Amino acid sequence: MNFGIVEFGYAFGETQEVAAVAADYVPDPERIIGWGYTTFHRAPQDVHAVQLATQAAEEALKRAGMTAAELGLVVYATSDHPEYPHWDSSAALARELSTPLVQTLLLNEGCASGVTGLGMIAGQLAIQPDLDNVLFVAVNRTSEFHRNRMTVNNSVHSDAAVAVILKRDHEDNRWLTTSQITDPDLCDFFRSEYGGSVAPLPPLSWNSLTAPSGLLRVQNHFDRDPKRLNAFVHDLEQRVVQVVEDACRRAGVERADLARVIYINDGQSSMQEIADALQIPVERTNAELAALHGHMGAADQLVSLGEHLERGELAKGDLVALCGIAIGMRWYCSLVRI
After folding, report:
1. What is the pLDDT of residue 215?
2. Are residues 160 and 279 in the same domain?
3. Contact, 76 vs 90, CB < 8 A?
4. Same-domain pairing of 305 and 207
5. Residue 178: left (phi > 0), alpha (psi -120 to 50), or beta?
6. Does residue 128 share a domain with residue 31?
7. Cα–Cα–Cα angle for 180, 258, 275, nearest 5°?
8. Do 298 and 271 have their domain in common?
9. In Å, how far are 35, 184, 222 from 288, measured between CA atoms?
10. For residues 171 and 337, what is the distance between their CA atoms, to the nearest angstrom?
C-alpha cells in the first residue's frame, strides 16, 4: 500500500521546566530531574485532548492547503483518559473541524496508537480504493485527577497533539510497514485503578499525587526479585529490537539501513540503552527532542519525525523506524521512507 505524509501540525500545552515544578508532584524531585528531561508541556485546566487535537489538525490542513471537506477518513489516537466515557473522540474531532459526513476511527492502544495507527490506516486504504486523503491525529492530555504525570513510570508525561495529512500515492515520508507484538500476561501494568466499571470512584482519601507509582505493580508482578526484574528490563529492550528487525524484514531492508530510530520520549539513560541495543549512536535517535518535550504518549514519534524533518536532520530516501513500548504490553514499529 503506497501512501505518505503530506504535512504535519502540532499543538502543545504550556512549556514548564521540570526542575522548577517536580517538587509539586513528588517528594524527591532530584530523582525526576535525574531522568534528563529539561522541559515538558502541561495544558491549562480547561484545555482537553480534543481541543489540542483540533489545533494540530487545523494547522496540518492549513499547511497542506486543504479543507476538512476533502478528508475521507479522520483517525484519532489517544493515550490517556478521554473527556467523557461512552463518547467517540474521533467523531468529536470531526465535529470541531466541521467535516461533512465522514468515516472516523478511534484508537486507544496507549502510546502505541500513534505508530500502529499507520498500519491500520494502510488496511483501510487497501480495502477502500476510493479513499485518498486521511487525517491522523495522535494526542496525549494527562488527566491529573487519575494519574500523577511524574509517577506513572520513569517518564515525565506531557500534553501535546500531532496531526498528519496522509495521501494515497504520495511518495515523500512514505509508510512501508508496521510490526507489533503483545505480551498479554503484562496487560495490567500501568493501568489506572479508578474511573472504570470495576472501580468507578476512588476512596475519599485517595489522591493521584500520593498514590503509589505505576512501577510498583511491575515490581510486585516479579515479586521484587532483582534477577527477574533485570531479565524483564532485558526483554523490554530486546523486544524493541525484535519488532524493528521484523519490520525491516517485511520491508525488504536491513536494520543497518536505518538513518534514524525514533523511540518513545523516554529518559536519557533509557534512550542510550535503546540505542545500544539497536547498535546505533544515541545521536541518531530522538533523545534530544525527548528531553525538551517529555513523554507525549501517542504523539511522541510523529512529533519527533516532523521536527527532525523541519530541522533538516533527515534527507530524501532516509529510512526511519518509529518504535516503542506501550500498555498491553505492546512492542511496535513502523518504517517510513523519507
Report:
1. 81
2. no
3. yes
4. yes
5. beta
6. yes
7. 75
8. yes
9. 13, 32, 32
10. 9
Share of the chain above pLDDT 70, in %: 100
- 138-191 tens-digit pLDDT: 999 999 999 999 999 999 999 999 999 999 999 999 999 999 999 999 999 888
Query: Of 110, 104, 109, which Cα lies nearest the Cα of 134?
Result: 104
Total structural domains in the chain?
2
**DSSP, res 335:** E
Q: Please name the amino acid found at residue 113.
A: S
User: pTM of the full predicted structure?
Assistant: 0.97
Answer whether 171's CB lies under 8 Å from 5's CB. no
Q: Which of 152, 171, 190 is the last residue of a domain?
A: 171
Quick one: pLDDT at residue 51? 98
* pLDDT score, position 218: 85
Same domain, 149 and 285: no
End-to-end Cα separation, the chain, in angstroms: 16
User: What digits encode the pLDDT tens for the residues 195-244?
Assistant: 999 999 999 999 999 988 888 888 888 888 888 988 888 899 999 999 99
On average, the pLDDT of the chain sits at 96
Asked whether residue 233 falls in the same domain as residue 124, the answer is no
Domain boundary pick from 154, 171, 188: 171
* pLDDT at 226 (0 to 100): 86
185 and 128 belong to one structural domain: no
- Whole-angstrom CA distances from 157 to 184, 314, 334 are 24, 26, 23
H helix count then E strand count, the chain: 10, 11
Domain CATH number, residue 272: 3.40.47.10
Supply the range of the domain harboring residue 132.
3-171
How far apart CA 221 and CA 13 sit, in angstroms, is 34
Q: What is the pLDDT of residues 313-331, one digit of tens each?
A: 999 999 999 999 999 999 9
Q: Are residue 155 and residue 295 in the same domain, yes or no? A: no
